[in-house]
Amino acid sequence: MSLYDVDVERSRRRRTLWRWFLLHPKADYVWASLAVLLWLGIASLAGHYLVLEGVDPGARRTLFQTLATLAGATAGLTLTSVSMLINVLGKKAAPGQRELPLEKLTATHRRQIGEVFLFAIPGLGLLLVASLVTVVLEGDARTGLWIPEAVVFVLAFASVLALLRVAWALRRVLAIATA
Fold first, then answer.
1. From residue 108, how far is each of 111, 115, 120, 153, 177 by CA, in Å?
2. Where does the chain have alpha helices with state H?
3. pLDDT (tens digit per residue) in 142-178
4. Percentage of residues in the chain having pLDDT higher than 70
5. Residue 126 exposure: Cα atoms within 13 Å on the Cβ side
6. 147 phi, psi to nearest 5 deg
7. How far, in Å, are 6, 27, 167 from residue 12 at the CA level?
């Protein structure tokens, strides 16, 4: 049995790691920072440009504008999902009818599902702002600025992890609703 009373057949170890990932969303920034620090370390040891400093200015600008667009669109979609989720989780069966599967969720479980969505939105908003700031700061310079680029990549990696958690929550709600 899983956290939401839906049968899941997986090994105990994998489920424990997955559960830890689901319950510790703030660790996304730690994992993302470690990934970017590893990238910076390898680049500096190899004597290459850090992050995307040496990439063509047009390509850098396009990448950061695309990241800003994706972050804004995904944040809007996630915010819309929150309103839909409130309606779905708040729906009650008519008097005399059998209890709906989602009504069996405890208040704690409902809060955890909501927090998954609400945690993703600020990270996506920060990614949007950081990407646009990076575009403005770099302008048409031949070389990029590695610090704002590194910040953007930390936020991008953390946002991807948060969106994985959002996809999991949507999948669980769907599994419970159709149980």
1. 5, 10, 19, 33, 17
2. 12-23, 27-46, 57-90, 107-138, 146-177
3. 888 999 999 999 999 999 999 999 998 888 888 877 7
4. 87
5. 16
6. -70, -55
7. 15, 21, 22
